[in-house]
Amino acid sequence: MRGFFSYYxxxxxxxxxxxKAWGRDQMIGLLLAFAVFVLQWHFxxxxxxxxxxxxxxxxxxxxxxxxxxxxxxxxxxxxxxxxERELAYEKEKLRREAVEAELDSKADMQGTIWVRVKPGNxxxxxxxPGSEFSCFMECSNFGRKSCQxxxxxxxxxxxxxxxxxxxxxxxxxPAVKTVAYGERFHEEGSFVVRGLMPDQxxxxxITIYLVDSLGVEYRGIVTKWSPRIT
Length: 230
Known about the structure:
CATH superfamily of the largest domain: Immunoglobulins
Mean pLDDT: 81
Number of strands: 9
Number of helices: 3
C-alpha cells in the first residue's frame, strides 16, 4: 500500500511541476479579474443583478479552463513518469555498455600484495642503514584483455627519507608472464631499501604496482602488511 501512495504522490508532483508555470499565469489572470470585479462592485459600476451574468461570462470560463488543465496534467503525469524511467534506463544502459567497452579494451589487474620486513641489515657495509622486505602477490586480471606482467615496482615513503624511494625488480623465469582475463597472477620477490633500518621500515608507507611490458602501471592493487611472508 505504501508503494501505491508513493506512486500517486510522484504522479501528483509531476503534474504540479509540469503545469505550475501555465497554471500560475492563469491564476494571476483569475486574481486580476476578481480584483476588477470587486472594484466595480464596490464603486457601484455593476449591480447585484449583473453578478450572475458576470460569473458566467468571466469566472466560469476561468474555473473550467483550470479544471480541464489540471485534469489534463493528471492524465499526462504517468506518461511523463514512464518517459523519465525509460530515459534513466537508457542512460544506465549506455553507462554499462561504456564500462564493458572499456573493460574489453584493456587489462585490469587487481588484488593484494602482502609485505613483511625481513630482520637484519642486508647491506655488506653494515655501517650504512639498510633493510629488506618481501612481497607475495595475489592478483587477478579483471579486464577483458590479457596483459604481460614484466616488472614489480615499489614506492617507499618515510619521514626519515628526504624523498620517496622507488624500487623495481624484473620477473625471473619467465621474464614476462601473460595474464589473460580471469586468470590469477602469483609472484614472490623482495626489495632492499637503503637509508632505513628494519624498525624504521616497519613504520614506512609501502605501495607496490605491477608493470606490464608496455610500461603500464596497474594501481588497482592494495598493499598490506602480513605475517604470512617468511
